[in-house]
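Just wondering, can you check both lines?
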Amino acid sequence: MIHPAPDHQIRQLLEGPFPVVRLPGIEIAQADCLAVMRGLPDCCADLIVTSPPYNIGKEYEHRRTLDDYLAWCREWLRELHRIARPSASFWLNLGYCEVAQRGRAVPLPYLMWDLSPFYLLQEVVWHYGAGVASRLAFSPRNEKFLWFVKDADSYTFNLDAVRDPDVKYPKQKKNGKLKCNPLGKNPGDVWYFPKVTSGANRASPERTAHPAQFPLAVIDRIVKACSNPGDLVFDPFMGSGTTAEAASANDRTVAGSEMRADYVKIARDRLMRAIRRRESERSQLHLVLGE
């Protein structure tokens, strides 16, 4: 069920001299993220999840010097800290970049972790099974997520919502009591989720035309663990709309920004399909239950 009150809250947030896609519980501004965030009030987002451009020359980014790129990142990171609620988490996904004379594939999170007032709680490694092959080094098969919080002593974390039921000895007991939580184990800080693949006869079902799409399952875990139903999830680099789909599917409201009109259309079309699919599933359930 979509919560109407937070939807009204979003409509008050995303007002400005830019087009806004409005769907039930979802608002996406076609605009620069800084222009959008500077119009937002303090402490309005319960969870922030994003994956910004990596500065590696993709079609959707303007290549900058490393110093310029980090200065730009500092700007939007500080705005994100301002709009985050006291109990909010911020999840940042980044890849690798070359640092001249120092490193060929330096993890961007290691250059950015201290560019904002957020408290770095944990690094989570997303491990995937397929990717670029290498002959002169080990083939890369991971990216980093940095999990920040605004208040290290008070933040939302729903472990039971994301426990892993794949437990080797689920019935094992100690002193007559189960050693493992009946809901499963803590999933740990290395997550295995396949990449969103493309290509004839091998494309993932969730694949869109966006060139850098991450799996819905990764963001689904983050949304469930670090927010509650009715919360506002914000993504300043909306891309294909993965954050929006995961948040909406879990009864959160979502707002964000994306500069490119073609990506906004990809996200809008994807979200409309997801909304229709959920409505159809609910209708089928009502018929089965006789409601």
The chain has a mean pLDDT of 87. The two ends are 16 Å apart (CA to CA). The domain at 4-204+215-289 is CATH 3.40.50.150 (Rossmann fold).
